[in-house]
Input
Amino acid sequence: MAAMFTISRQFAFCYAHRLQGHTGKCAHLHGHNGTVKIALRNGQLDSQGMVADFADVKNSIGEWIEQTLDHRTILAESDPLANLLREYGEPILTLPTEPTAENLARLIYEQAEKFGLPVAAVTIWETEKCAAEFAPCT
Output
């Protein structure tokens, strides 16, 4: 019988964003206390009996989240507010897409892959009740 091992690590970060063209509240600049769960999966354990060392996960993708996303305003590259905030020295991150929870989950997933982590899925909660997940089709 084939086995699959999965571990996960959660991180919290605060961010602001807005969604251009949205017809609801999200059209306006607002903030979230986000939580992200990164699930790692492998059919084999390493020589120490782990999918990955939790400390390595924290020191790679966890550090990236803190340095890149935490306490940032995240906007689409096309958002005219981005240049204004830069002029005032505000820490911002621009994305080629609208900064939805779905797109942030994909961004974190792709970054975790770049760190060589065996990432299976990334889930991000904007609020306690609203979450988006990104996982590739297999």
